[in-house]
User: What shape does this take?
Amino acid sequence: MKKLRRLSHLQQDNDMFEENDGLAPKKKQFVEPREWTIISALDRVLELSHYSELSNEFWQSAEKPLSYLREKLQLTNMQIVLVAIMAESGEPLSWRKFGNYVNCSRLAMMCHSEEIEGLLSKRWVIRRGSHEMGGCFEGFALEHGVVTALRHNEVFVPEKIDGFDEQQFMDKLESHIDKNLNNRNASFEDDEVWMMQLVNANPHLPICHEIMRFDNIHDKSLLLMIAFDYAQWADSDDEGLTLSSIDNIYPEDWECNGLRHELQNGTHILMKAGLIEQKCEDGIANTERYMLTQKAKTDLLSAYEPSRSKCRPRHNKDKSLTSFTEIKEKPLFYNPFEEDQIAQLTSLLSPENLSGIQHRLEEEGMRKGVACLFYGAPGTGKTETVLQIARRTGRNIMQIDIAGLRDKYVGESEKNIKSIFTRYKRLCKNSDILPILFFNEADGILTKRTSLTSSNPSIEKMENAIQNIILQEMENLEGILIATTNLTCNLDTAFERRFLFKIEFKKPETEVKAKIWKSMLRSISNEDAQILAERYDFSGGQIENVARKRAVNYVLYGKDATLDEIEKYCKSEQLDKKNERTRIGFIM
Assistant: This one.
């Protein structure tokens, strides 16, 4: 057995944690310090407790350092003795080894089980097997960081591991495991204990609730290690915990060898539960690489955005995120009332104004998020206005495909919409300037909630659930949300209340249309632009279609279209006009 490091001056030529011959070692004359420190007081308690049999004489003689430590550490007398012995040992101690040090029997020490349980609940101590002749026995060791705190004369405060959301839980797991995997002095056995503490401290999380269903600590830790792999390698070719990695971290014993065999032949309990699977590579299962199933990612970690910390920078960036630097400047023309509203909104969203406005709203106890609704007929510039506001205010845009949110599986659509807001919150947290969350063509999610009386109540229930999630997220919004819609006659009043700005985009007036014609067809005269504006009640989008046809004509024939030819394009643009539905808006 290796020599144990002492705190100060106890005899080091005697193995204090083995059976003794009944003779206490000679002790040096003690000189009480003018002022106790945690270490000096613990060292005195340790010295007096050695071979003391925890007698009344011992407790009386150790009262001064014990009194100091009780007040300083908020521990009981017996807990102080146990902490002193564990700090001295530096390795896990069984009940027998505790007894050997103080010259008590193993059973006598087990009478103090409640004291150890108290230290466990305070997270000063962890359970660790104590290896002795004859096997491995129940043992205990000080939590990592305890001795460091005591050495600096500070009370040990356990790291916060409770009350986490999914993102915080996985971020904490990743940082802890990643650090220890690169630490030669770290023990995976310690990591397993820490992971179980983390799980037990967060039973409200789906992943923790699921893990607590299993009994074997290796099965529990394996699921977390595969989740750790997902955090670092998500959606990359390297995602999947390899068998060689498992060989490196799990011991070579009968139990873990069985775990390896079950993973390779696909019969492991986590596989039967549909939580992990062998990685599919080119249509063939790799029996030596394991990853979370899509079901596990969706059910257990739907609100988690992996860090992908080990992945190479992606060339195919997130398609939903557009940098304001990628948005080309485009002149837009509005009717006077709309122009004033858009100018006001652009000013509000400028970085120099928004933070002050949000701070004031928060002081007044009001919601500080800014939600805007752009509504009106198609082609009136709603989408392009959002882009230009983003460009002018230096804000990136997270644009959402509404149709892509719906899923044929029960509950998946709701999880999809939750994950959108989770991603947006994370983006806000990591951005110097708040980005814009943009729901384009949001007609399908802003309509009135239904009463589940139709022939397909399950779909209506899903739609209502999606809307309720969005309403709740808008209530708690701290960033910027802009939605565009063509149809507002069926707008749910709950949504209407949550939009701070509601801007109607009407078809441009004649003067505005003339400006649009001139900007789109730069070669035409002001008079021709005015003629086109008066003759055709077009939206900006329709005028752009005519301009594109004229550009195609130039490529094909090498000459600009005449006014008569432009009017032919205009008439073809009106072909389906008679079939267009009447759309009803609402007045601000």
User: Anything to note?
Assistant: Residues 457-475 form the longest helix (19 residues). The chain has a mean pLDDT of 84.
